[in-house]
Amino acid sequence: MKTHSVRVQKPRKKIGKKKHLAWLIAKMASKDWNLNKDIIDMVGNRIIDNTGVAVAALNREAVKIARAQAMQFENKYGATLIGLNSKKKFDCQWAAWANAVAVRELDFHDNIMAKETCHPGDCIPTILAVAQQRNCNGKDLIKAIATSYETQLRLSMSIALNPNKIDHVGHLGPAITSGLGKLLKLDAETIYQAIQWSAHTSIFTRQGRKGNLSSWKAYAPGLVGKNAIDAIDRAIRGDTSPSPVWEGDYGIISILLEKENKNIKINLPEKNEPRSGILGTFTKEHSAGYHGNSLIDLAFKMRTKIKDTKQIKKINIYSKKYTHIVMGSGSNDNEKYSPKASRETLDHSAMYIFAVALEDGFWHHEKSYSKRRKNKPDTIKLWRKIKTFESKSWNKKYYDEPNPLKKAQGAKVEIELMNGVKIIDQIEFANAHPNGETPFGRDEYINKMKILNNNIIPKKEENRFLNLIGNLEKLKPNEVKTLNIVCKEKHLDLKKNNIKGIF
């Protein structure tokens, strides 16, 4: 691993291209390295994870719309759509779009906890779609996905976007592009041009994550993936890009980042080092914003000490700044206390998450957010008794810890009953976290997928898919083309295809 310094270019004094962040990433992506079992297995785990959460979301509104759009672009040499017969192929750009929306919709796949929090698994739909259209093998697919994860982890560890109200997909665009460059075995110059274009077109505000959250959260990775494919395609044809996109006078660092982010140190693996960044990421057990997963597990634990939740006077949650201002009462967002709020808002409400988990003792990706569930009078009363507070000690456990896997994203909770009794407990990591009580391995990823499939996928089809994952490194291009899961036709709602749009 080598540390690189990235800074804003001074007027009349250009920084040489080989010091540009885009070049450093492109050079890393263009070099080859040897796979190891841990990386192979984890890439397989995340494909399983993505597929499971996508299947569970196939008939949600955003997913149906994205799929209806993609189905207008049939291409016999293209890529598959999750849920549809794998013999049907579609333009890889649109397959990436629709599949990425399905994966992201439930906010239920993997995470990076660093200066910037994000979902690196968002890269997989785009890379897999291009791999299918360009006849790539399993080994190439694994290396491409691992490269994308590596890029996103390193960017996330070095550059915070959230304090500047920039959406975390600002790192996803360059990450996907680096993975596509690796997949197609492109030279550093071509990848460099594509990364800069992708970075330039992946910057969005965080308004999509505040107020009444729309389906934007689901669509964002798909849009970035489409842009990345477009950037790579044009770069291959010889097109250039805004340069230097990070270091320029009007670039990302100079214009969009706060002062503390303007002298950037970034670690990148050298020539022969494995791209093992994926091992510094982890998935969710519960369908809620990741900083809420530990709260759900803690609520399950604390509810055993409470006979009647109606006897609760107040609940105080003490955690790091991010939990407080993004998911908590520190956001000053009334929607996070409203039963009329969207699911997208409530899965980022620490107060709602804790209240429902405390009352129910289980968490379900649909039932826990249903109209009936969020409108229960007792829940609303309890929900509004909950406040979050920023804690210096929890800030230290999270922000001062450089290792993403050791960042404590949990909380301390004080529940005060009407009789004055206080129940206090805390948790540093969600149970499924590598440092949690029940960390996820291959069996847990498979079990999560099986639960989410809920008989939508025939047993034979499920086994076929899992057998492909078990042999991922050795898959031939024609087998990669079938790396999809097909649901029972009666379970797939295609009514949106009857609505005539532009296409």
What does this structure look like?
By secondary structure, the chain is an alpha+beta fold. It folds into two domains: 2-280, 2-methylcitrate dehydratase PrpD (Orthogonal Bundle); 290-427, 2-methylcitrate dehydratase PrpD (60s Ribosomal Protein L30, Chain: A, 2-Layer Sandwich), CATH 3.30.1330.120. Helices cover 44% and strands 9% of the residues. The chain has 20 helices and seven strands. The chain has helices at residues 21-30, 37-56, 61-70, 92-104, 124-133, 138-158, 169-183, 188-200, 216-236, 252-256, 290-302, 321-327, 343-346, 350-360, 371-374, 377-383, 392-399, 442-453, 459-470, 477-480, and strands spanning 2-7, 74-79, 263-268, 312-319, 386-390, 411-417, 422-427. The strands form two sheets. Strands 5-4-6-7 form a four-stranded mixed beta sheet. Strands 1-3 form a two-stranded antiparallel ribbon. Strand 6 and strand 7 (422-427) form a beta hairpin. Helix 2 packs across helix 4, helix 5 crosses helix 9 (216-236) and helix 8 (188-200) runs antiparallel to helix 9 (216-236). It is globular and about 70 Å long.
Q: Give me the strand/helix succession.
A: EHHHEHHHHHHHEHEHHHHHEHEEHHH
CATH topology title of the largest domain: 2-methylcitrate dehydratase PrpD
Note the main sheet.
4 strands, mixed
Q: How many structural domains in the coordinates?
A: 2
What is the CATH top level name of the largest domain?
Answer: Mainly Alpha
Task: Output the radius of gyration.
Answer: 22 Å
Strand content: 5-15%
Detail the poorly predicted runs.
Answer: none
Number of beta-strand segments: 7
From the spread of the alpha carbons, the general shape counts as: globular
Output the CATH homologous superfamily of the largest domain. 2-methylcitrate dehydratase PrpD
